Recover the amino acids of this structure.
């Protein structure tokens, strides 16, 4: 008996998924546990492990296609099975809007700053969407079909006509309405514009960051920090442990300590209340090919730096491979981002909800400074920039935190008391 | 003597299905033959549509005498001979039947006289032993009048429609058992020629299968002409004598009797599917009809059935269209797999005429679809008054949301012609507004159609 293969909820908050890659092809045998395909959710790509056995008889949703959880993506059974009825059912499932990819779940999808990313995105062609009628070209259609298309909000030019002479007739409009083609005429290529489809991930980044920037009144504090002490501590620790602790881990630990002393920085605006989080969960922005993601190390306040670093290492690797689970990239109460390795001196970031602040660190460079004796010294420094949500963190509080952090970084012993 | 001839398609029966299908087949490059045991043209041409319409025309000519008298002309009908009307109807039938022979010859269709039986999926054997080989066989043997055992046909006192069309003299009085289309047409003819007519109908109105409002227009007209209509009445038994026939009727438990010179029994037609070899081929008949699927294929490869042997409406234009579909399909043409029943027009050639297609008020209600109805009276079109035929109506049923035409029902002069404008709109998916806004010549009866469409749109001028 052939069966439908349905899109599963690969995470508790997943509502739709985009098939990014079919691992198994039509005709291949599937055993329980085999990876059928890779599914892109709002922020990560996950493997769909088969829970049915048999032969993959038909792929219903192709690579790039998105469907809601529960909808049919394929048909499995024995070779020779009659699958027409199931294929027909699957076709009927596709309702208007099933092409909408990546609707983020309530708690899903964190974002990081929209620093001018290395990849410059072409704006979607500002298409003046021409009705074929507008250009004077007649679209052959019966009056009844025209009326039905108008009522269903479907553009005639997007419907294939099967009536006399290719005329669009009633049944064509009915078919189009069932398939949910809310018309988007094909992009007209002009010169060398490249039209990049917006992935689910991109959509989420766009939505979350816009929302954050729009809702939270951002202000920015900048402070330069001498890094010699921190780097010396790091060197001795690395020698001691026989492994290299990342600078990011240090930053996370130091930030957590600063937060302990200024907990308002680890809070969230909730309308009538402000939630001051008990746990310090710090997200670190990690660049990916097609976007960015913030893996979160939980409870940085309680963890030692080695533990933080180990976790971070595995999380970052997963992030680069697009394999983070939603639990691993959502819910950061404070975020950190670094573009120092790109040579950026300093920059400001967009707050990553549910947090109310985000810390950036630029490149470490040697600069001439004026010492207490009014002499010029060469010192290694970096510039921190803190973006704060003014609803939660007033200027003075933000400044106090940043000052604390600078002190800790320049005097690591501070964490002991 | 066994001769073998071989064709792409062999049509068993030369009526509106057989001869039309065969001509279509040769037009498309196939070879075809028609096997016919009687005259080409079948029932329609010889003992159905054509002679009846000829008689209707003669009946109306005769009826118009009252029109002449109204102009002061004194008319002497003492020399009237019904036989002459009958002969005209035969002449029409003969002319057209010969015309069909000519058309078949012209289109290189072999007309084979004889009675055939299908002896294999690709072979028909005639009663003289000739064997016809064909890659495809189309059963098109038509139908015959249903005979009720209590009232067996003798075609003298108890007539079928065949006998009625072959009458050479009029009875003084006639009982018509069956108030459907054929019964009403005969009532119209006979009453026009001065015969005392009584219709007995089992259901609760004449034309029980048509729209109730259009049937009512005809019923009113018949009442004015003093045609008795005994509806909701069953015929129980009869007695024949040399004076004629006495029919015992039953209505609501009460029995009565009526008498007349002759009894015409027109309660429907049954398919001619006996002795064709169908059962031996493996075809199981359903109530005498041949079950068919897409393209009118039977369960046997290469064997098709069309026309009155199939349970689709028993109409000549349906038979012709079905045969055309078969020919086109066999020739590899792209054709619809079957006729859309909503696009089949029905026509009753009484005066006033009744015509329609698609849903009517009863079938629309039963189907459960959402619909609205508008009606426009013939009287609103000036021409109807000018020609003294103001009684009638044009009714359009449509979808409330899109105004898609779901059906049209007409009663009145020329209804059988007027219906085509609305049918064209439906089949081409035009909307009532397209009819409403098109200029119709004035004065014409078609203006009633235009105004009915305008009534759908909410702005009739002449109402």
């Amino acid at each position: 008996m052939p069966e439908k293969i349905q899109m599963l909820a690969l995470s508790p908050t997943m509502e739709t998924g985009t098939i990014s890659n079919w691992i198994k092809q039509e005709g291949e045998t599937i055993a329980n546990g085999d990876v059928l395909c890779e599914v892109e959710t709002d922020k990560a790509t996950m493997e769909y492990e088969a829970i049915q056995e048999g032969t993959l008889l038909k792929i219903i949703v192709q690579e790039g296609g998105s469907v809601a959880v529960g909808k049919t993506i394929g048909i499995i059974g024995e070779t020779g099975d009659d699958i027409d009825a199931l294929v027909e059912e699957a076709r009927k499932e596709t309702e208007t809007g099933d092409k909408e990819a990546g609707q983020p779940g309530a708690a899903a999808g964190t974002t990081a700053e929209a620093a001018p990313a290395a990849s410059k995105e072409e704006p979607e062609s500002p298409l003046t969407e021409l009705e074929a009628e507008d250009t004077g070209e007649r679209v052959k259609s019966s009056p009844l079909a025209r009326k039905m298309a108008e009522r269903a909000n479907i553009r005639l030019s997007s419907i294939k006509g099967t009536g006399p002479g290719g005329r669009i007739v009633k049944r064509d409009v009915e078919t189009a309405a069932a398939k949910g083609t809310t018309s988007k005429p094909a992009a007209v290529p002009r010169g060398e514009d490249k039209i990049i489809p917006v992935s689910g991930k991109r959509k989420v980044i766009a939505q979350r960051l816009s929302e954050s920037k729009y809702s939270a009144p951002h202000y920015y504090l900048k402070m330069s920090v001498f890094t010699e002490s921190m780097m010396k501590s790091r060197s001795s620790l690395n020698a001691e442990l026989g492994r290299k602790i990342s600078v990011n881990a240090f930053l996370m630990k130091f930030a957590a300590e600063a937060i302990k002393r200024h907990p308002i920085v680890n809070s969230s605006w909730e309308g009538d209340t402000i939630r001051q989080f008990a746990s310090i969960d710090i997200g670190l922005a990690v660049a990916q090919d097609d976007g960015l993601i913030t893996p979160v190390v939980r409870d940085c306040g309680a963890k030692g730096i080695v533990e933080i670093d180990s976790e971070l290492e595995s999380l970052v690797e997963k992030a680069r491979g697009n394999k983070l689970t939603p639990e691993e990239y959502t819910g950061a109460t404070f975020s950190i981002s670094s573009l120092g390795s790109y040579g950026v001196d300093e920059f400001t970031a967009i707050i990553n909800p549910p947090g109310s602040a985000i810390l950036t660190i630029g490149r470490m460079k040697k600069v001439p400074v004026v010492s207490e004796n009014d002499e010029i010294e060469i010192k290694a420094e970096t510039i921190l920039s803190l973006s704060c949500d003014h609803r939660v963190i007033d200027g003075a509080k933000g400044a106090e935190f940043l000052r604390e952090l600078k002190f800790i970084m320049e005097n690591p012993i501070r964490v002991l008391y | 003597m066994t001769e073998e001839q071989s064709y792409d398609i062999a049509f068993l029966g030369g009526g509106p299905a057989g001869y039309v299908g065969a001509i279509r087949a040769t037009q498309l490059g196939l070879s075809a033959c028609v096997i016919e045991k009687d005259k080409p043209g079948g029932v329609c041409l010889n003992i159905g549509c054509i002679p009846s319409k000829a008689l209707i025309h003669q009946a109306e000519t005769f009826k118009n005498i009252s029109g002449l008298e109204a102009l002061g002309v004194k008319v002497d009908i003492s020399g009237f001979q019904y036989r002459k009307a009958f002969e005209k109807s035969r002449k029409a039938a003969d002319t057209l039947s010969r015309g069909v022979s000519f058309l078949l010859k012209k289109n290189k269709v072999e007309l084979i006289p004889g009675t055939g039986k299908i002896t294999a999926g690709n072979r028909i054997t005639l009663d003289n032993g000739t064997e016809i080989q064909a890659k495809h066989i189309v059963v098109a043997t038509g139908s015959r009048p249903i005979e009720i055992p209590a009232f067996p046909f003798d075609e003298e006192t108890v007539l079928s429609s065949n006998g009625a069309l072959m009458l050479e003299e009029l009875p003084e009085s006639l009982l018509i058992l069956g108030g459907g289309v054929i019964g009403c047409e005969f009532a119209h003819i006979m009453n026009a020629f001065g015969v005392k007519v009584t219709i007995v109908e089992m259901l609760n109105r004449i034309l029980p299968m048509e729209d109730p409002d259009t049937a009512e227009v005809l019923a009113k007209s018949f009442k004015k002409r003093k045609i008795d209509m005994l509806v909701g009445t069953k015929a129980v038994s009869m007695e024949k004598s040399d004076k004629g026939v006495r029919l015992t009727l039953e209505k609501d438990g009460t029995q009565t009797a009526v008498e007349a010179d002759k009894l015409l029994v027109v309660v429907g037609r049954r398919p001619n599917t006996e002795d064709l070899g169908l059962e031996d081929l493996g075809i199981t008949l359903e109530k005498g009809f041949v079950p068919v699927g897409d393209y009118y294929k039977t369960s046997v490869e290469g064997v098709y059935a069309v026309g009155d042997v199939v349970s689709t409406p028993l109409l000549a234009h349906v038979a012709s269209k079905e045969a055309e579909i078969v020919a086109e399909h066999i020739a590899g043409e792209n054709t619809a797999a079957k006729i859309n029943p909503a696009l089949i027009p029905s026509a009753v050639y009484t005066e006033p005429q009744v015509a329609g297609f698609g849903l009517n008020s009863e079938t629309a209600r039963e189907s459960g679809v959402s619909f609205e109805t508008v009606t426009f009276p013939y009287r609103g079109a000036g021409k109807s008054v000018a020609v003294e035929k103001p009684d009638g109506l044009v009714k359009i049923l449509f979808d409330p949301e899109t105004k898609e035409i779901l059906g049209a029902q007409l009663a009145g002069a020329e209804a059988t012609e007027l219906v085509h404008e609305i049918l064209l709109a439906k089949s081409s998916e035009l909307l009532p507004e397209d009819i409403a806004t098109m200029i119709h010549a004035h004065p014409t009866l078609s203006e009633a159609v235009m105004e009915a469409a305008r009534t759908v749109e909410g702005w009739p001028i002449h109402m």
